[in-house]
Amino acid sequence: MWLATLVMKGVEYEYHNTPGLLTGIDLSRNKLSSGIPKELTGLHGLIFLNLSHNHLQGKIHVKIGAMTSLESLDLSTNRIYGVIPQGLATISFLSHLNLSYNNLYGKIPSGTQLRGFSPFSFIGNPKLCGAPLIDDCGEDGKPKSPIPDNDDTEDNG
After folding, report:
1. Are the C-beta atoms of residues 91 and 115 closer than 8 Å to each other?
2. What is the pTM of this model?
């Protein structure tokens, strides 16, 4: 059983068994921190999820592949780390994906769904490799190209 609580104008409303009615969540630019709540992966009817431009940390939950109705996912410009779960490649209706500017690493999961996105969907994650990025992965699952240092020092030489 689901319980959703909505506070509007100081009044608290409780809703039971309503998550199926929820089709989109946009909490972008809200200074959210901590991790991405794993409970979001239980919202199977969700069509779009935008958590971009926050301070979210942690990994993308492995059960994200259960969000089979998802058409748009934007987790860009956070502090998310870890590998991209293979389940993300199985969401067949996903037509918009932005994972840019996080701390993701490793090989982008194989599968036609993720390989069809622009490299800009993954930019700003220097330790990511594999299609659709230009950097191929080595046998260790790391980019073959050297990873740039984040030095702010200038080369005056």
Report:
1. no
2. 0.80
